[in-house]
Design a protein that fits this description.
The protein is α+β, with helices and mostly antiparallel strands. It has four helices and five strands.
Length: about 140
C-alpha cells in the first residue's frame, strides 16, 4: 500500500499528496514511455498545484553512480486540501488518457483510496471519475 511521503510541514498547512501510477501501453519502447510520462508530468505542473514530482524509487543498485532514484511511472502531486484543484487534476488525467492513442492506464491514489482509469467508454469513465472526485473533494460530504 502506498503511503504519503508528505512532510509534517506540508500536512500542517493542509497539503495532500495524490499519487498517479502510470502504466504506459506495453507496446511502447522504454524511451517513448519515458517521454510520455515526462509530458504528463509537465502538463500536470501547469495546473494550480503545489508541486509535481516523480515518486521516490527503490534504492539504487550497489555501485550505481546516481543516488536520486525515482520511479518514472509514479508521479506525486501535492495540492491544497481546499478548492477545486483535485477536480482539475482528475480532469487533466482523464483528458490526457482521452487524447492518448495508446492503451495507457493511470491509477490515482488519495488517502488510501485508488481509482484506475484506462480504456473505458467516455460515459463510464466520466461516471466513475465523478464519484471518486465527490468522495475526495468534499462535494459529497
Amino acid at each position: 500500500m502506498w503511503q504519503s511521503d508528505a512532510s509534517a510541514d506540508e500536512r500542517a498547512v493542509g497539503l495532500r499528496d495524490v499519487r498517479l501510477d502510470v502504466t504506459p501501453d506495453p507496446e511502447l519502447d522504454p524511451e517513448a514511455a519515458e517521454r510520455l510520462l515526462r509530458r504528463l508530468r509537465a502538463e500536470l505542473d501547469g495546473l494550480d498545484v503545489e508541486s509535481v514530482r516523480f515518486a521516490p524509487g527503490a534504492a539504487p543498485p550497489e555501485g550505481a553512480k546516481g543516488s536520486d532514484a525515482v520511479t518514472l511511472g509514479a508521479i506525486v502531486v501535492a495540492l491544497s486540501a481546499s478548492g477545486g484543484v483535485f477536480t482539475s487534476l482528475i480532469g487533466a488525467v482523464r483528458d490526457w488518457l482521452g487524447r492518448s492513442s495508446g492503451r495507457h492506464r493511470v491509477s490515482v491514489t488519495v488517502d488510501g483510496d485508488t481509482i484506475e482509469l484506462e480504456a473505458a467508454t467516455d460515459a463510464e469513465r466520466r461516471a466513475l471519475v465523478e464519484t471518486f472526485v465527490r468522495r475526495h473533494s468534499g462535494e459529497g460530504r
